[in-house]
Amino acid sequence: MINERQTWLWIGLGVAFIASLYFLRGILMPFMTGLLVAYAMNPAVRRLERWGIARDYGTGFMILSFFFLIGLLLFIAIPFIQAELLRLASRVPQYGERIMVALKPILDEASSVVQPQDIERLRSLASTYMGDVISWGIRVLAGILTNGLALANLISLIVITPIVAFYCLRDWPKIINAIDSWFPRPYEPTLRDLFSEINRTIGGFAKGQALVCLMVGVYYSVALTFVGLDFSLVVGVVIGIMAFIPYVGALLGFMLSIGIALSQFTDWHSVGVVAGIFALGQTLEGYFLVPYFVGDRIGLHPVWIIFALLAGGVLYGFVGILFALPVAAAIGVLVRHALKLYLKSSYYLGPTPPSTKKRRETAHSPL
User: Does a structural domain hold residue 15?
Assistant: First the structure.
């Protein structure tokens, strides 16, 4: 009876916590971002502590260095990316016309099957709407990079996030010890092992996936620049940023690159080279980079990763996307542990026959 009450108590607390996060999702971004920064910086601060630097000073140094580098990167990168996106938007109508010219032989072949008036209608619709839609989307993206954040969110990210990150990082050992003291004593070893496994899973995946994103972005930027593709740096940055979503980043980059190649190059050989770069990139990412740097650390199928990202985005917006994979990894660890318990339980194995139970008791008897 007591165990049943404890179970319902923990379920009720979990539901209340999740409901609180949902109703407070509008103000969570600076706090959750600060917590994530503190979690990522904690190993470096602990290393500084081992070198004899007090935690307060180590925390201040790491927080200032981190946000200074982020600010410097944004100060340099955002104007450049915005200018490139606006330049790409201004060229999209020309690219649409060139793509239609490049596809004209294929359309002429199709005219033998499809009625000529339908082909002409398709051509006019594509030339009318494709350029406007893509230009509008790119201008919106460029606006998001500079003016898309609401003033309140921008101020909270700039002001509140470093403060939250500093105090969480400074007091990280106290926070961990407090949470550890709340564990029910009979289950403390099991819960400690679970949280340690979750920490290893999230930490290993985050480090490995960050390296994969960096290498993939550098590869596509350099390779596409080498073949002379317009806006190759923007394409490489987009693919690198989106590489944490399985297949989505590469598919988006492939479509964007092939569209630019069809409009830029007059020969199919160059378009084939661009396609070959993506084929080689996917081979390197799928068979070398991801297995070596990420492996099976997160323990989730790519379909579930995409589902977690979409669900997080729908429920909590950008904060949900930011924390979707860590939460999915933690849930995966808990589900695997629950599955192990289930496979050893009588619910799965069935009731133990009396004769078998008696033999087990006899075998363990001291007499």
Answer: no
